[in-house]
């Protein structure tokens, strides 16, 4: 029977496509990875990989082992973490998955004040959060879509809207509203280059036929707001709650978008498990207070 280290290598090669990248990703030298492949194939008496150009491609036998690896490795990682907790005689922590909307301080403060101290925070892309829930890597996440797969529950937390975020000293800060042309002339800071339906490019910039001339990607709303606040330059369009919860309202301000209101609803997506169910009434109050009352 192969040790888990062999399955980890199979998974890494499948993800990265080359032995060089895979070995670097899991902290092996390339000669050591090569030796490990030969050892696997010798012990199993099968060919696991075929070379196509510079890529290593799994054979059917290799794919079978990969399927097993991707089932077993997360279970082993979870079991190791739970064993470590049991050894320390601790209750498991709530695992909260966050994406670019990483304004977590106010939520954690409210949670601590209500006696919920064990919260671990894991970072994912927006698209990966639901997958992380399905894979039971996390227990809960804030999402702005009510469409969640079977096996995940959700609660509507806050009905919000998108507004322009500008430095408090900027001339736009005194406006009743801003149009797309106003923002297009400023450096536009955003956490994602994706132009998704229903958001600012689709509902605001495109209809007014003006898009930002300069776009800067900062994959952290916390950092993005800090840049605008510190430099007193650059603008963005964000959900209002993140600005109000950021603690930066003395340096940045919100201005409505001219001619359009873009709603954005926030839902708490969560697993139906013991640790979430134990804290769910409090969690609902914590997120509602932070998102709605700030």
TrEMBL record:
GO terms for cellular component: protein-DNA complex. InterPro entries: LysR_HTH_N (IPR000847), LysR_subst-bd (IPR005119), WH-like_DNA-bd_sf (IPR036388), WH_DNA-bd_sf (IPR036390). Gene3D superfamilies: Periplasmic binding protein-like II, Winged helix-like DNA-binding domain superfamily/Winged helix DNA-binding domain. GO terms for molecular function: DNA binding; DNA-binding transcription factor activity. It comes from Terasakiispira papahanaumokuakeensis. Belongs to the LysR transcriptional regulatory family. The keyword Ribonucleoprotein does not apply. This is HTH lysR-type domain-containing protein. Residues 11-59 form the HTH lysR-type domain. It holds the Pfam family LysR_substrate. Keywords: DNA-binding, Transcription, Transcription regulation.
